[in-house]
Amino acid sequence: MDGGPRVPGQRRAGSAVAAEPEATRFGVLGPVRARRGEEALNTGSPQQRALLAALLLREGRTATAAELIDALWGAEPPSQALAAVRTYASRLRKILGPGILVSESGGYAVRGLGEGALDLAVAQELATEADKARGGGDLGHAREALGRALALWDGEALAGVPGPYAEAQRVRLEEWRLQLLESRLDMDLEQGRHAAAVSELTALTAAHPLRERLRELLMLALYRSGRQAEALAVYADTRRLLDEELGVEPRPDLRELQQRILQADPALAGPSSPVAEPAVLAVRPAQLPASVPDFTGRAAFVDELSEVLASASEAEGRVMAVSALAGIGGVGKTTLAVHVAHRARSAFPDGQLYVDLQGAGPRSAEPETVLGSFLRALGTADSAIPDSLEERAALYRSVLDGRRVLVLLDNAKDAAQVRPLLPGTEGCAALVTSRVRMVGLAGAHLVDLDVMSPEEALALFTKIVGEERVAAEREAALDVVGACGFLPLAIRIAASRLAARRTWTVSVLAAKLADERRRLDELQAGDLAVKATFELGYGQLEPAQARAFRLLGLADGPDMSLAAAAAVLDLPVEDTEDLLESLVDTSLLESAAPGRYRFHDLVRLYARSCAERDEQPPSEREAAMSRLLDFYLASAARVYAIERPGDRTVDHLEGTERPGQEFIDDARALDWLHAEAACILACVQQSLAAPSLRKAVDLLLASKDLAESGASALRYGVVTQAARDAATALGDAHAESRARTTLAQVLSRAGRFEEAGVEAQRAIELGRTTGDPWTVGNAHNEQGIITNCLNQRTVSESHLLEAIKAFRADRNRPGEASALCNLSRVLVSLERVSSAIDLVREGIAIYDELGLTFRLANARYALGIALGHDGRHEEALKELSAALHTFTVNRQRLWEGATHFRIAQVHLSSGLPARAAQHAEQALTTGCIGGEWMRANILTLLGHSLESLGQTDRARACWRDALAIYECAGSPEADQVRGLLTSAAVL
Q: Are the CB atoms for 587 and 495 separated by under 8 Å?
């Protein structure tokens, strides 16, 4: 990075002279430009711009007329060269204004540039900043600075500027840009971004085939992406090219890397997944809950745990410390862990992470979900977080490497849930709380936490209630803590109730607790002791509070919004909020975030037992869950209608008695759907019984965007399969047909076409029987897509014609447009391209008429395919690029990947294999509709692109990977790929 050309010094931010609002700015990293404020200045003819560029690049020094003549014309200047220089300078002075271009000593200079006035100077400063950050070990900051520097280039530097000086500077600036790019890519690999780097490096090696450093980085990126054969193929391609073009062998570093790859050198294995995206400020999470001010006792445990954490924080510490606290619910595990964690904060300056793993509830937190939250808290962008548990865990450990972070894993279910969440690096530590002993957690320091001693229990009670009241009734206070079984949570709840009621005496509270039905003795401790403690708090609630407590505990979702709670309780939002906040005050409910509430898992179980016991008549429980289902269905239907105006699906959904959430715009609607995804799917799964089955299935229909976003697709598929099974078991053909249609869509987008076809065919049969227009149209449409992917073109055409007929009969114009676009893709495969283009334009006209921007992207995607097949490549790229933008905005990640694949196809057909390879790599990185089958298609295309670039060994490696996928799936495309490999072997 030190090789960058020097430019005139500029005033720094601390200068006493501030930049003028209308300061003049210059650009040389692209066409030579000048701007005053937002106004573009006309810098004149190419020779005049050459003069300006020469002055801008001379570090503020004066250039003599002779030097400028040489810069512009070299050894053979025109006879009037001096006069021309003076004319150019005069014109530039008028354009730029006073004080910028000055005359002195028979020459000219550019002076007085403000901070940020020249793009090259900004790039230099950013490169220097990156050097310092990298030297200090801050790769994230260094990479971000280099990214900003590289973004300043706008094509070729000094583009269109004539003269030998400009040509020399162009070469230097391009070399410097490539050096910066190589440095940034090197840091990408250090940070585990090898999968994303492959795409960029593929394009760069195609553009600069003899640049060995780029080839070296590509080999390493491929190797770390699990593509060893391709990495070795890159070396073979490079060696052959260097021999043919230059008659030399690869440089030693490249040869050494090849040998290390052949030997599977463990040192080559970098982070398996990307680390956090760089942030403007270092991210230091501080997620510990507040420590209670009245923490009491537990001195021996505090000292023991603090000592273990101190060993982890020592500079010479060689292992990560894990302490696991076990005990019955309510014994104070969380309180103790949080207290110890706060005491140890200074030993972990890089932050503290916290999560409630909900281990005692019916659905404990998934480790991959927790890792996603932790990675975001540590500064990782959503786009950099991988999907699988293994990749997230590896990325998590990579992000924590070199940091001192304390992780508090509260309320764990078992050791299997905890293992992926452990940091795994020295300097970090983990505190785990659980109702079970973590004997399966290797190397953990185990602590069994029992109830408080009588003295500690009385001290805690006294701190909350007050010394004066307890001193007056010491025996009654001892009776109270004894009745609570010396459990800290029970004592805290009892003391809090007494403290809030000044008219009560301690004896009154003791008398209330004397009833053994409200408590259990120590020998019967366990979860029932916790229940007895909760019973005390529940018994103090007002009737409206108690009803809210019981009914809200019925829902399975991880939390609940205020609007959803209002639906459950059948109350106005304002009254609901008052009730919920009062429950938060009693510690029986938690406020997860503004407007969202959740139960501690044990409290939720207790609330349900109260509902079963106290909610009369029992039908009120069913009614509450029905209102929640209505709320989600009505709200999701609104999102669907906003995203797809004119689509008749919403007219075919089961009716609801509640209006649902209101949204002010499309973005808020989509935000709501994705934010409520876990709650919606939990509600569906909880509602798969006869009275609510049809509404539950319809909620899946209305929330189908979750199936295509990537983030919730897996869970959506699991719930959809459960819905199909429930409908089948109950003999509800109407619900079964819709569930099977939806499941067919899920399976098709995962590339499981044979299974999807079975579901779609059964849905068609059921739809005909029940006369459900939604099923008939959508099942035929889906079966048309599926059979097209299975190369059954005639069958596909028949199904899509039936779909069009059904949609038209139902007056479902968006459905009709969808089927028309799908049919166009079939006709493309049948070489009826002109008809295909006509059909898709007909579909686009419908979408345009209805204002369906989101679904228009699918139509433009289909049109891009048809135009590309017709050889109209420029038009095809325009349509596909527009579709890509819409998919990105609407968070349809799998469609983004599919569109990159189609763009790659067009580029390859256009004779641009480097661009094709780049987009194919982006498709592989992003993921696609079509699952593994589509991945094999992409690898096949990538192989063709690489073969066109002369990288035949790597092309064969791609084809071998594609063949393995096709053979595993029994796909007919396997024969084509075998032919490619056979032909390549002959060559």
A: no
Q: In this structure, what token pair is assigned to residue 706?
A: 């979750």
Q: pLDDT tens for residues 200-230?
A: 898 889 889 999 999 999 999 888 888 888 8
pTM higher than the cut 0.90: no
Spatial separation of the C-alpha atoms in residues 59 and 987, rounded to whole Å: 55
What angle do the packed helices 573-585 and 543-552 form, to 10 degrees? 90
Decide: helix, strand or coil at residue 429: strand
Quick one: tokens of 736?
């079964």
Cα separation, 513 vs 3, whole angstroms: 80
First-residue to last-residue Cα distance in the chain? 42
CA distances from residue 175 to 2, 55, 622 in whole angstroms, order as listed: 12, 21, 71
> Other CB atoms closer than 10 Å to residue 445's CB: what's the count?
19
Q: Considering only CA atoms, which of 646, 681, 675, 654 is closest in space to residue 663?
A: 675
3-state secondary structure of 883: helix
Share of the chain above pLDDT 90, in %: 40
Q: Judge residue 136's burial from the number of C-beta atoms within 10 Å of its C-beta, 0-12 exposed, 13-18 middle, 19 or more buried.
A: exposed
Residue 313: closest CA among 429, 475, 165, 436: 429
Predicted confidence (pLDDT) per residue in 573-629, tens digit: 999 999 998 887 666 787 767 889 988 665 777 788 889 888 878 889 999 999 999
Is there a contact between 695 and 632 (Cβ–Cβ < 8 Å)?
no
φ and ψ of 743, to 5 deg: -65, -35
Residue with tokens 């030693």: 252
Say what the pLDDT of residue 380 is: 82
Q: At what angle do helices 893-909 and 913-926 cross, to 10 degrees?
A: 160
Distance CA 171, CA 176 (A): 9
Residue 199 backbone phi and psi in degrees, to 5: -60, -50
Q: Whose CA is closest to 619, among 688, 542, 691?
A: 691
Q: How many CB atoms lie within 10 A of CB 890?
A: 20
Q: Is 82 exposed, middle or buried (0-12, 13-18, 19+ CB in 10 A)?
A: middle
Of all helices (H) and strands (E), which one includes residue 649? Answer: none
Which residues are CB-contacts of 755 (< 8 A; sequence separation ≥ 6)? 747
CB-based contact 766:776 (threshold 8 Å): no
Q: Which residues pair with 118 in a beta bridge?
A: 26
Q: How far apart are CA 186 and CA 193, in angstroms?
A: 10
Q: Quote the CA–CA distance of 483 and 520 in Å, as a whole number.
A: 8
| Integer Cα distance of 8 and 498 in angstroms | 75
Contact (CB, 8 A) for 558 and 615: no
CA atoms within 13 A on the CB side of 893: 18
| Helix 164-190 with 46-56: angle, nearest 10 deg | 60
Task: Please name the helix (run of DSSP H) or strand (run of DSSP E) that holds residue 103, with its range, or none.
Answer: strand 101-104
C-alpha to C-alpha distance for 562 and 580, rounded to whole angstroms: 9
Say which residue the tokens 């056979």 belong to: 982
Q: Which residues have C-beta within 8 Å of that of residue 80, sequence separation ≥ 6? A: none
Interstrand relation of 406-412 and 590-593 (parallel, antiparallel or unpaired): unpaired
What does DSSP say about strands 321-326 and 429-434: parallel, antiparallel, or unpaired?
parallel
